[in-house]
Fold this protein.
Amino acid sequence: MRHSKNTIMSSLAGATDNPGPFLSWPGTSIGFSLYSARIVLLVTALLASAITSADCVKDSRGEVYCGAGRCIIDSEGTVWCSRHYDGDAQITLDGRVLCGKGQCARGGNGRVFCSSEVGGAVLIDSRGNVRCYGQCEPATADKCENTRADGADS
């Protein structure tokens, strides 16, 4: 089914058969509230900021490791942290840790992608695809660090 540019634009401008603050694709009844979409994005951003920031984690031997971003332990018990401030770390299906500049997420295909922007947010859409602020880039081990924290003498 082909739609003219005017049909699409008038639909997006609100001249649809659907009442209220809904946008929909012409010829469908699928729509979403702009208000609801804003709320979802706001909540996602708040959760992302709570999840990602400088972090320290203690390993099984009691050693403390810190990084500029989130830290997690891999399947072998090694602590890995994102080397980027507000960066993220994710564990893969096979137990490895991969990191990124921004928030990271595992898509429906099992691959981990991160925002290309430092501290950038990500979201998984209804199809299981990762959507990123800026661009999506694959998470890599090169963006991780394993730095033991320095202790202060009391």
About this structure: Helices lie at 5-12, 34-51. Residues 1-25, 48-52 have pLDDT under 50 and may be disordered.
